[in-house]
Write a sequence for this structure.
């Protein structure tokens, strides 16, 4: 069993100022997940009549992308996995942990550790899709896709939209998230007709959402729980330049 | 409730406070376009620097060779072209490159500052290299360097030998001064770091990296950065240590 | 059966499937007979869709594409986070790409049999028919299904099927399918055809003049309680496994939307049919907040065993071959490790009950890959299951390539849900229910890889066809905020919220949820008996009573208050739990996921009682203290002959 000191960012809502508040938790089992450790803290706070710490979470198995905390300055903490998949055996008895929300102009704080990531949805909404209304599809075997491309598209498509890339990027850039979708759809034959328009609209939206530009620093990929590679950003750049050469006009 | 919606045939999109800004339009607001401008202008500067470094190394062959080289760049193309045409073309291209590079850098820097209005209490780096963290300040110091450097060695305005000296005299005069040499040395080290990150970054920005090439690109970045840094440092250090006079 | 438990009401029946034509023509015929809505009129008709999972997301996108005005509600921040995202294994479709004898009829047959003959033939047949179009649609959307070197789609056999009809995207099929629907939905949002309401929880259904006309919601961040009206309401709010507290569902998964509709008159069918998934990571301590599924596909290469001796605590690697009991291979030589879920789960429970379970608390069995690794090489196993092995390692800290996995069954899926007819309409006109939230296609047990199929069938292809028939009568008279039904519903929601916040007792919401969950698992879980269920029915009302007098909910109404959200959901789970136990107790037979200790064959297999229980139990809500009313829908089998399920 371990005891820890937690310094947690508390902020009532988007409009108010926040600050770091210190808590102590004891009887932490190394097999607990990080969020279970916070559950224990919250039950104690509730019984003491205090306001429990708000944090987003849902699936608790690393796939929904809801959870996300900055733990001692690293997005999702010391393992390259989501915080719900981070277990307390990664820490030592007596550790002091700073726990903060994702910080970005594009991710306003909702409360405490929960932030508003709807900007991501708007980036997808701007062009992260293939326009195929239900019922218009040809047989699934009509277009073969080389396995290499299918696998690479899948690798990019595994992005869970957690936002750790933005949180970690010194520029607060969402380029890895945007690139993951651009690469996923751009690698498939089905994605070709809208390829130029897609990349321009999506980058335009990412720029309009108060995210920074990418300067190829690579923090994003290093903390990404799905290991989305920097290569996707190169693909995005490549596609965007290709679109410009083809005469498209940027929308941002 | 619904009443309003019934009158209006197009559904409205409910947004949370402060959301969905209309994207600004225009070719040069796109962050990737800006980055491309940086990459292209950066590469132009690199090409110039390679040539420039080779030219500088002529200092080891003595004042005549060096000065005649300086004269040569002013007369390329003669007599077909008026004197200094090529030089001015180079100058204009370089000026444009520096200005665009600088503009894009500042504009992206400002975008990045807006993107993180509240800083972290604790922030560690996981992957980020020293080179990538110093591009911005390093670049800014390089900008100051370039201004100083032109005032010093081209115009001679800040050079002890004044503006009516030969390039070789200015060179020797400048680097016989310890603080000036120190400033050059620091600037060249920063240039090395800038290029170490910049060459990789430019390849990535132009969409030319992938997992397989990653090592090769990084290797190339190291080699070019090192060659340029060492090549440029040789002359000032040789002057400072009296190997050239 | 003592009468005080429930009363029997009028039987019900589906009247929409055209029974006068052969089963393979019924869906076509239904689409032909259903009225259409002129495209120009569709913009004047509005649809509320609650949920953005495979069912809700696909429905909202498709209805918007058709031209209806859609209002979409969900409780997570983004539609991409609906729990469908967690499905790992795959999705079935009768494509017969493998030329291994698959067909629509076989998928239909397998599903009816797999559901232990407690599902409606018409619905299942339609599901099998539509399955192929789903794959086409998803591929066109860019879903990166696994492919072979020739560039064509790969298939695998899944969950005991003898044909390879499962399409998959590594271990993340649900995620990729959901993103396909999400992207289609985001496209419609961008076009202004869908009004989005993220972080909004449905807390009541508004019924006006006998028709579902709207919902009351609470915005989870501002706490604002508002009503939204439309011509029709579609619920796609997922399953209720979280009544067990520990399940493979997401923390937020709830029964609230369905339950409140039930309280407004929608019948709730087969609530006791729950599926226990055999391969989950065992519980490690009291703090445990949810269980993690290890994809069933692991059983294709892993062998399940326990030590022959009780209390054998040796390292598994040190237990010699002849001291291991590969009990599934022993009992079911034909199917071996690939028996259906209910059977694999119950056998795991049996060996643990015998004291032969492994792991810290004896609740676990080994899933061993050493044979497969020897045969195929570690690389091959890594390529197939790498992400699952990593996940296992992260959670347990153990290396499964070395030691194998420890697994134990966990609640995973709920076959029960709101009763719907062939058109997917509930007993409240204008309330349609799709996906896991309805009861429709899986009978008493769902086969692997068929929930994704059902969710997308409902959302992309079935509902968008059947809903027109209802909307052809619209637009319905407008209802405004001052309508008494709206005022009453909103007031009810406000009163409940205020009540929860005012009790200020001494026990946390989570402690009630844990207690309820443990009770349901012990008494109404993998095996149920009259005795256990009666015990549960004695205790649940006490929990309910204590909850409403002694719960402590922190914070206020007007802010982001996750504790308050949880409290409302637990209140509904408590009521649901009671109905589940009543249903389980009244169904004095074993079938599929419902195993009654009293009803088993001499070998310990589930024993159905077709004479008395070949029906859907659809329950009508009654206020506290009044026994619920049972409406039976008789099940007839014209095409699949009733038979005892056997996997020996
Ligand atoms: C771990 C796991 C693995 C699985 N693997 C497979 C598999 O391999 N193959 C297979 O076929 N099936 C699988 N299943 C089952 C399958 O994933 C689900 O049955 C299916 O995805 C349910 O989809 P749905 O759209 O009905 O609901 P969900 O995806 O659960 O979506 C529910 C939606 O309703 C919303 N909602 C819920 N309540 C409210 C409310 N009160 N107010 C507002 N909104 C609300 C939520 O926000 C969400 O958007 C798996 C399930 C789990 C848990
Ligand atoms: C005028 C002074 C300079 C400033 C202020 C400056 C600044 C910067 C900055 C901030 C970056 C990273 C920006 C980003 O990617 O967001 C950068 C990149 C780069 N710089 Fe400079 N720099 C300067 C001079 C130079 C010089 C002299 C060279 C070449 C010899 C150069 C070559 C590069 C290259 C190749 C890149 C990579 C472009 C990319 O990111 O794609 N820079 N510079
Ligand atoms: C320390 C190493 C360097 C030395 C010794 C050096 C030397 C010189 C000399 C002697 C000149 C004058 C040439 C002439 O007038 O004929 C010159 C010009 C110039 N140098 Fe350098 N230089 C160095 C590094 C750099 C660097 C790093 C840059 C750019 C980042 C640079 C950019 C220039 C430019 C732009 C000119 C003006 C060219 C013109 O317009 O004529 N120099 N340099
Ligand atoms: S790219 Fe990685 S870090 Fe960024 S949102 Fe996607 S999964 Fe998260
Ligand atoms: S860390 Fe940031 S700068 Fe680019 S490479 Fe990643 S987005
Ligand atoms: S809670 Fe779903 S990824 Fe962590």
């Amino acid at each position: 069993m371990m005891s820890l000191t937690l310094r947690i960012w508390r902020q009532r809502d988007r409009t108010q100022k926040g600050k770091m508040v210190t808590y102590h938790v004891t009887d932490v089992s190394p097999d607990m997940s990080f969020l279970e450790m916070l559950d224990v803290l919250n039950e104690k706070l509730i019984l003491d009549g205090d306001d429990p710490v708000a944090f987003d979470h849902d699936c608790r198995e690393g796939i929904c992308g809801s959870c996300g905390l900055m733990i001692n300055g690293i997005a999702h903490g010391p393992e390259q996995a989501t915080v719900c998949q981070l277990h307390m055996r990664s820490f030592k008895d007596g550790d002091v942990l700073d726990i903060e929300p994702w910080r970005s102009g594009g991710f306003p704080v909702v409360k405490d550790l929960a932030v508003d990531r709807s900007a991501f949805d708007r980036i997808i909404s701007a062009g992260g899709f293939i326009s195929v209304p239900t019922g218009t599809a040809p047989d699934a075997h009509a277009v073969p896709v080389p396995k290499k491309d299918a696998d690479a598209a899948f690798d990019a498509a595994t992005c869970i939209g957690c936002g750790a890339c933005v949180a970690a990027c010194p520029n607060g850039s969402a380029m890895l998230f945007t690139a993951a979708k651009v690469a996923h759809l751009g690698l498939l034959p089905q994605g070709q007709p809208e390829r130029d328009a897609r990349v321009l609209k999506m980058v335009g939206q990412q720029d309009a959402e108060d995210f920074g530009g990418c300067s190829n620093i690579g923090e994003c990929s290093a903390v990404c729980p799905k290991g989305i590679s920097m290569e996707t950003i190169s693909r995005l750049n490549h596609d965007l330049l290709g679109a410009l050469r083809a005469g498209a006009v940027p929308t941002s | 409730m619904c009443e309003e919606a019934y009158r209006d045939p197009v559904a409205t999109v409910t947004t949370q406070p402060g959301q969905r800004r209309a994207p600004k339009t225009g070719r040069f607001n796109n962050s990737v376009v800006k980055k491309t401008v940086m990459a292209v202008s950066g590469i132009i500067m690199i090409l110039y620097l390679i040539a420039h470094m080779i030219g500088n190394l002529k200092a080891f062959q003595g004042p005549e060779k060096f000065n005649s080289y300086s004269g040569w760049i002013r007369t390329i193309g003669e007599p077909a072209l008026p004197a200094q045409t090529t030089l001015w073309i180079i100058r204009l291209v370089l000026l444009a490159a520096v200005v665009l590079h600088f503009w894009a850098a500042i504009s992206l820097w400002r975008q990045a500052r807006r993107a993180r209005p509240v800083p972290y209490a604790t922030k560690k780096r996981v992957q980020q290299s020293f080179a990538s963290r110093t591009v911005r300040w390093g670049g800014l110091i390089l900008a100051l360097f370039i201004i100083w450097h032109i005032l010093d060695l081209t115009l001679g305005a800040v050079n002890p030998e004044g503006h009516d000296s030969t390039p070789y005299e200015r060179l020797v005069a400048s680097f016989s001064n310890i603080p000036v040499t120190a400033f050059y040395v620091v600037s060249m080290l920063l240039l090395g770091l800038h290029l170490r990150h910049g060459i990789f970054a430019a390849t990535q920005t132009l969409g030319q990296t992938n997992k397989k090439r990653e090592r090769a690109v990084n290797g190339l970045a190291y080699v070019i950065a090192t060659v340029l840094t060492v090549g440029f440092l040789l002359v000032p250090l040789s002057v400072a240590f009296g190997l050239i006079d | 059966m003592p009468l005080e438990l429930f009363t029997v009401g009028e039987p019900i029946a589906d009247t929409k499937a055209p029974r006068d034509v052969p089963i393979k023509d019924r869906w076509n015929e239904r689409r032909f007979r259903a009225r259409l809505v002129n495209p120009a009129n569709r913009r004047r008709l509005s649809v509320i869709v609650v949920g953005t999972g495979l069912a809700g997301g696909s429905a909202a996108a498709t209805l918007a594409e058709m031209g209806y005005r859609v209002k979409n509600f969900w409780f997570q921040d983004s539609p991409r986070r609906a729990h469908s995202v967690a499905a790992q294994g795959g999705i079935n479709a009768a494509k017969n790409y493998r030329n291994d004898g698959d067909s629509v009829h076989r998928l239909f047959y397998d599903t009816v049999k797999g559901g232990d003959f407690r599902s409606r033939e018409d619905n299942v047949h339609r599901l099998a028919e539509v399955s192929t179009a789903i794959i086409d649609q998803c591929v066109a959307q860019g879903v990166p299904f696994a492919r072979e070197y020739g560039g064509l789609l790969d298939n695998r056999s899944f969950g005991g099927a003898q044909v390879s009809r499962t399409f998959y995207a590594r271990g993340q099929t649900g995620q990729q399918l959901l993103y396909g629907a999400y992207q289609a939905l985001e496209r419609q949002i961008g076009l202004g055809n869908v009004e989005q309401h993220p972080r909004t929880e449905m807390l009541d259904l508004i019924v006006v003049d006998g028709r579902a006309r709207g919902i009351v919601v609470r915005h989870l961040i501002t706490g604002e309680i508002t009503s939204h009206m439309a011509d029709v309401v579609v619920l796609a709010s997922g399953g209720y496994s979280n009544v067990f507290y520990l399940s493979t569902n997401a923390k937020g998964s709830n029964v609230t939307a369905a339950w409140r509709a039930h309280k407004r008159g929608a019948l709730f069918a087969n609530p006791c049919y729950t599926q226990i998934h055999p391969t989950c990571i065992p519980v490690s301590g009291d703090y445990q907040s949810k269980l993690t599924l290890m994809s069933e596909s692991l059983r294709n290469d892993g062998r399940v065993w326990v030590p022959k001796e009780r209390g054998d605590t040796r390292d598994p690697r040190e237990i010699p071959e002849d001291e291991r009991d590969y009990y599934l291979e022993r009992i079911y030589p034909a199917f071996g490790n690939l028996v259906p879920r209910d059977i694999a789960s119950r056998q795991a429970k049996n060996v643990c009950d015998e004291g032969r379970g492994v792991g810290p608390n004896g609740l676990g069995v080994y899933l061993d890959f050493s044979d497969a690794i020897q045969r195929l090489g570690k690389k091959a196993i890594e390529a197939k299951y790498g992400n699952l092995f990593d996940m296992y390692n992260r959670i347990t800290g153990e290396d499964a390539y070395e030691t194998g996995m420890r697994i134990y069954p966990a609640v995973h899926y709920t076959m029960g849900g709101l009763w719907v007819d062939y058109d997917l309409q509930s007993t409240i006109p204008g309330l349609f229910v799709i996906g896991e939230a309805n009861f429709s296609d899986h009978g008493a047990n769902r086969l692997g890889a068929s929930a994704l199929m059902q969710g997308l069938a409902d959302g992309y292809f079935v509902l968008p066809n059947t809903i027109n028939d209802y909307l052809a009568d619209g637009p319905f008279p407008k209802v405004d905020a001052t309508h008494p039904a709206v005022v009453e519903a909103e007031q009810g929601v406000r009163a409940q919220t205020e009540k929860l916040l005012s009790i200020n007792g001494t026990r946390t919401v989570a402690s009630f949820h844990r207690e309820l969950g443990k009770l349901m698992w012990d008494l109404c879980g993998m095996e149920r008996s009259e005795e256990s269920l009666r015990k549960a029915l004695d205790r649940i009302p006490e929990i309910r009573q204590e909850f409403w007098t002694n719960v402590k909910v922190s914070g206020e109404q007007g802010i982001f208050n996750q504790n308050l959200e949880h409290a409302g959901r637990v209140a509904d789970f408590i009521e649901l739990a009671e109905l589940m136990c009543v249903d389980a107790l009244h169904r004095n037979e074993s079938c599929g996921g419902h195993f009654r200790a009293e009803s088993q064959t001499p070998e310990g297999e589930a024993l159905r009682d077709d004479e008395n229980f070949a029906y859907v139990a659809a329950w009508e809500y009654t206020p506290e203290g009044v026994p619920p009313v049972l409406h039976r829908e008789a099940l007839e089998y014209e095409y699949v002959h009733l038979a005892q399920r056997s996997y020996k």
